[in-house]
Amino acid sequence: MNFGNIFSKMRKQQPTNNETPSHWVKCKSCNSLMYYKEVENLLNVCPKCNFHMRISADKRIKILADEGTFVEFDTDLEPNDPLSFVDKKSYKKRVEENFSKTGRKSSAISGECKINGIDTQLVVFDFSFMGGSLGSVEGEKIVRAVNRAIEKNTPLVIVSASGGARMQESTFSLLQMSKTAAALAKLDEAGLAYISVLTDPTMGGVSASFAWLGDIIMAEPGALIGFAGQRVIKQTIGADLPEGFQRSEFLLEHGLIDMIVQRNELKKTISDFLTFFNKDKKDIA
Predict the structure, then answer these.
(1) Which of 111, 211, 217, 250 sits 20 to 30 Å CA-CA off 223?
(2) What is the Rg, in whole angstroms, of the alpha carbon atoms belonging to the chain?
(3) Where are the domains of the chain?
(4) Dihedral sign, Cα of residue 65, residue 97, residue 36, residue 218
């Protein structure tokens, strides 16, 4: 065995002065250090412990939508500042900063695409825009996606990644919970499928509204899913909480979600259900 060649290959995989730290990814779960290309090839899933890292909304769309089929709608919608809200910064300033960071005006990307050949309305939340928070624009985008689904007789898929309702819009953001729920009721009346995909994290007003209303509710492994945070709940009820009680595995065990799906199986699993629902719809007709 040529140990010189082995050590030479190992050295090539180590960071050099010409490589930035971004070339190396450290798993937050098992602390393994991996070359970024290895992680990217696995859709940002740790090969050591199967930890599903957070990914961008653009990458999520690339994973789910057939290549070249995604068409985005409602890009002109942008939040206003109905309360002239100011904390450490003004709401307008926060929106401007997040627009500069993401190139988007809201945390929801809404459009239509094909998923394994099936026409689908797709809404994906971008956690990098104000924590994927739900505000007036995000609620409106979901309602318009529902309306397009009804008009075009297509299913709807929403991928959630959110800290909850946007506090800077106060009641305006909370109203989006009932607004989206009412729209989804119309989708159900039309006999069209809605698949809800919960990713890390899905919390607050998002988990308490449209995220829980899917005909099928699926989650990625290890996703943090709940309403209030663990510390708040513990302080409120004054009791210790079960280990991992807000993770997707616990929720599946207790019947709150339908299934856990590996990221590399999401597209096929979604399209299988959409095919089933479409066949069922034709049989009824």
Answers:
(1) 111
(2) 21
(3) 1-53, 55-284
(4) negative
> DSSP labels for 31-99?
--EEEHHHHHHTTSB-TTT--B----HHHHHHHHSPTT--EEE-TT-----TT--BSSSBHHHHHHHHH
- The string of DSSP letters for 112-138 reads EEEETTEEEEEEEE-TTTGGG-B-HHH
CB neighbours (10 Å) of residue 54? Answer: 16
Q: In the predicted model, is pLDDT for residue 17 greater than 70?
A: no
Largest Cα span, the chain: 71
Output the six-digit token pair for 188.
Answer: 């159900």
Q: 55-284 architecture in CATH?
A: Alpha-Beta Complex (3.90)
pLDDT confidence tier of residue 224, bands split at 50, 70 and 90: very high
Phi, psi of 103 (to 5 degrees): 75, 10
End-to-end CA distance of the chain: 68
pLDDT of residue 6: 47
* Predicted local distance difference test score (pLDDT) of residue 20: 45
DSSP track, 154-220: --EEEEEEE--B-GGGTHHHHHHHHHHHHHHHHHHHTT--EEEEEEEEE-HHHHTTGGG--SEEEE-
What are 84's two structure tokens?
A: 């002239």
Cα–Cα nearest to 169, from 91, 68, 60: 91
For the range 229-233, what are the long-range contacts, defined as Cβ-Cβ under 8 Å and sequence gap of 24 or more? 229/203
Distance CA 158, CA 125 (A): 8
- Give which of 227, 275, 200 is closest to 44, Cα–Cα: 200
Does 13 have pLDDT greater than 80? no
Token couple for 223 = 């996703």
pTM of the model: 0.89
